[in-house]
Amino acid sequence: MLVNVSLAVAVAASLLGSAAAAPLVAVKQLVERKVNASPDFNITFSSSHTDGLPRTLIMATGGTIAGSSASATDSTNYRAGSIGVAALVDAVPQLLNVSNIDGMQVSNVDSGSITDDIVLLISKLANKALCGSDPEYDAVVVTHGTETLEETAYTLDATLMCDKTVVVVGAMRPATAISADGPSNLLEAVTTAVSPASHGRGVLVVLNDRICQALYCAKTNANALDTFKAYEQGFVGGPLSTKPFFYYPPSQPTFKTVYDLSNVTSLPRVDVLYSHQMATFDGVNASVANGAKGFIGAGTGAGGISPWAKQNLAYVMSQGIPVVASTKINNGVVAPDEDPAAGSYISSALLNPVKSRRLLQSL
Q: Count of domains in the chain?
């Protein structure tokens, strides 16, 4: 049920060549499974079992980390989601020194094509893999395109029902690039995921030798390798020689709430409205007619919305449709409105518009 409360409270040849360094020990090769190991997971590739190593489920969704281009120097014009999970793992044999690996292909698309159904499926699979009475896995790693990575990572953080570790990882350069960052990112992600020191920290994002909590982490640059950051809160750690080094003991935000989606079959439609000078949001009624169940205002400053837009939003709120006031700046706090006459907007607190959308869908 959507409730009107403050969210502050509710709340590839080149690839193979680049990673073909000799492993530290003899590495078991991937083998194709003829029969799925579990009816809950569509496992298509699995490493041979090594006693004493933890077990990691890699859910691949596509993205730049699985992308390919005709040129090894081209890191902008490429096809995302060209390489499957088996090739990703096989390109980094060092992975099998730190964990036994099962891989499943949830999707193989650019992250702009990730749907609510895919995200809901990943959440349910992660909970099945880690949070049951007899979990099959010790950790989950999700490979993902970077454009919407923070949305999926935050959704998992808000819906994972145990303190096991999920790491979401991507790359800023395709697998075929001469300086592809995917192999090292994947190795660091799996190594971080299976580390006991990672437990109790929520879902983590690992890229570019940095470890970031999903609740705070956001993409800050369209092209640079060091794009995922948490400006206000900072990183929680970074891999040193692939092994995670954390700056602080495990902790969770004081306002964090986890939502159980196990009985949810679909997420409601919530639209994000981008504010600007003289914004009207005239299309909200059409959105409602087409099934929108809520709106996020990506406002100016600390959630500012123009008076013309407020008129349209006041009308949809009068129909019981929730509206969250957030900020397109992506940093800072949108506080609850203390003026009752101003309307009943929900405060996004410190969540940016896309994370506010995911939380509103989960309430």
A: 2
